[in-house]
Write a structure and sequence with these properties.
three-stranded antiparallel sheet, 307 residues, N-terminal domain of TfIIb, 8% strand, Serine Threonine Protein Phosphatase 5, Tetratricopeptide repeat, mainly alpha, 13 helices
């Protein structure tokens, strides 16, 4: 008896919808011609060593995983990259992003220690990047840049600030930033190990410099969108004002936390639009000018760890 079996997950539960066959287990779609190829009958007696080519599985899973990554759908990111990793255990992209999806999901968990567990897994996945660097067939530069960008993106995500532990309210922002910093530090270690062998690959030094400075960790999101850089005189001024004026009082810190909860979302939605930049630029220009008059410097600045 003939049986239609999904190449991706092995399920036989495929239904024809809108002219294509759709696997009800993993969602993969097959054209009529592909479905004919998948039709199998009976069993095959194979002797000796058989090498299974699962490249088609990997490519389809990767396509689904990357779509989920583009939408910040962390559950699907974790799910599909896990599938890739199962079929291609040394795939750097899958090894990192399967655990990265877990870590990103943990940021909305009210228990800090659950976040720590997920970030421990993430750091372990980062720690094997150097091991897989030589054997992977991926575009190595592209994958390392993706990982670097993803780690930087963590700092712009809104997460739960407070949690309950033993009946006490515990401020978790500092802890969570430290978890993010640990991931960046682990990645930096791997980059340096790779560089020892591949000294001629200039992009590695570029990524080392980027992750060594660690910017932006607590960024001025709106100002960065308006002025086009985290490191420019206007943003240096505003960062100093944040760290040495606002952060000195409880209500100033409350304002900063509220700003960090809202501004990343606003910038994600509207930061690329001209009307958004125009609306804020005049206000920020006046604010920066007033701060400069009051003595706030506009020279290069490293963020203060105030939280």
């Amino acid at each position: 008896m003939k049986q239609l079996t999904c190449e991706m997950c092995g399920s036989t539960d495929l239904i024809k919808e809108d002219g294509v066959f759709v696997c009800q287990s993993c969602g993969c779609k097959y054209s009529v011609e592909e479905a004919k190829r998948l039709m199998i009958e009976g069993t095959v007696d194979v002797q000796g060593t058989v090498k299974v080519d699962n490249s088609a599985f990997v490519e389809k899973y990767l396509a689904n995983a990357r779509r989920a990554l583009g939408k910040d759908d962390w559950e699907e990111v974790e799910r599909y990259y896990n599938m890739v990793e199962q079929n291609s255990p040394s795939n750097m992209e899958a090894v990192f992003f399967s655990s990265f999806g877990k870590a990103m999901l943990s940021l909305t968990d009210s228990e800090y220690y659950k976040r720590q567990q997920k970030f421990d897994v993430l750091n372990k996945s980062i720690s094997v990047i150097n091991d897989y660097y030589e054997e992977t067939t991926e575009d190595k530069e592209k994958v390392l840049r993706q990982i670097s960008d993803a780690i930087g993106k963590m700092y712009a995500v809104t997460f739960v600030y407070n949690t309950k532990a033993s009946g006490l309210t515990v401020g978790s922002r500092n802890w969570t930033i430290q978890l993010m910093n640990s991931a960046r530090s682990a990645f930096l270690t791997e980059l340096k190990q790779i560089q020892e062998v591949h000294k001629d690959e200039a992009f590695i030094q570029e990524l080392i410099d980027k992750n060594a400075t660690g910017k932006p960790m607590t960024g001025c999101y709106v100002a960065t969108a308006v002025y086009g850089s985290y490191d420019c005189p206007q943003v240096w001024t505003l960062r100093r004002f944040r760290d040495y004026t606002l952060a000195e009082t409880w209500y100033g810190r409350a304002f900063i936390r509220t700003y960090y909860a809202i501004s990343p979302i606003l910038v994600k939605w509207f930061g690329h639009t001209e009307w958004f930049k125009k609306m804020w630029k005049g206000k920020l220009d006046r604010m920066v000018a007033n701060l400069n008059v009051k003595g706030v410097e506009d020279t290069p600045y490293e963020d203060r760890n105030w939280f």
